[in-house]
Amino acid sequence: MKLPSKVKLVDVGPRDGLQNEKDPVPAAVKIELVHRLQDAGLLDIEVTSFVSPKWVPQMADNAEVMAGIQRKPGVRYSVLTPNIQGFEAAIAPDRALWPDEIVVFGAASEAFSQRNINCSIAESIERFRPVVAAARSNNIYVRGAISCTVGCPYEGEIAPERVELVARLMKEIGVQHVGVADTIGVGTPLKVQRAMEAALKHYDLNDVSGHFHDTYGQALANTLASLQMGVWQFDASSAGLGGCPYAKGATGNVATEDVVYLLHGMGIDTGIDLEKLIDAGKFISDFLQRKPNSRAATALLNKRMD
């Protein structure tokens, strides 16, 4: 079994992790979280989303957050832009404040697409087409995310053919990288591998990543199953922040700390300082007045106290 020697992690905590928080998180706190993550060695951070504040009020300060970050050379800052209005807002300031990467997201489930973005899968792709074209013409990298690749809260199990369909459609409109997301955390290793194989029919191994929520405690197992396929890029969320507003009971993305502990224990390089990463997760967890939702962070914080 040949495993990747190095893994790239995208920390989605500042965006995916915080977007569903009911109480406002000040821009200064979000900026500090980004600073702590990049100081810990994260080179890819999903910062915010340019969506209507009516639908996602927590991200209403997107421009303020992007303007407040002290950027580090070599770090890629990404934002979610689900439509052309969002993209135009993201590039409205000076070029120095633009994102390095934008993210568009579709679903492998028709029902989820309707509930989440109020349109069909086919309509969502047409909505993304001008966004992708505009980003690429401005030399901004385009990443796509496919939600509900193994299970949907409305349709149940999702066939790999649906994942392949969305991957093909995203490839056709110019999306450069695709993330295979187990949005509600129901996936198990073989199901996740089948979803990955479906995406790999249209994308190179270097252009596919995993995004696993940990609702049923399977996220690390699914990460390992993907590593065994040669997949070397993954999303994770500091302190395990997040959830899905359209999937009752779904927990956050797998904790970045837990993935880093797993990878380092397997001798796989991440370039991340685990102790500093734990401090970043503790910082945001303390602000939210809860414990980090990371087993590794909890164990190592307890060890520090001893």
Summarize this entry quickly:
By secondary structure, this protein is of the alpha/beta class. The chain has twelve helices and ten strands. The strands form two sheets. The chain has an eight-stranded parallel barrel, surrounded by eight helices. Strands 6-7 form a two-stranded antiparallel ribbon.
Strand content: 15-25%
Helix content: 40-55%
Number of helices: 12
Derived structural class:
alpha/beta
- Biggest sheet, strands in spatial order? 1-2-3-4-5-8-9-10
Largest sheet: 8 strands, parallel, barrel
**Counted beta strands:** 10
- Determine the mean pLDDT: 94
Rg on CA atoms, Å: 18 Å
Task: Report what the structure shows.
The model has no long low-confidence stretch (mean pLDDT 94). The strands form two sheets. An eight-stranded parallel barrel has the order 1-2-3-4-5-8-9-10, surrounded by eight helices. Strands 6-7 form a two-stranded antiparallel ribbon. It has helices at 13-17, 27-39, 62-68, 84-90, 110-117, 121-137, 160-172, 189-199, 219-227, 256-265, 274-288, 295-305; strands at residues 8-11, 44-49, 76-80, 101-107, 141-147, 151-152, 156-157, 177-182, 208-212, 233-236. The protein has twelve helices and ten strands. The termini are far apart. The protein is of the alpha/beta class. Helix content is 41%, strand content 16%.
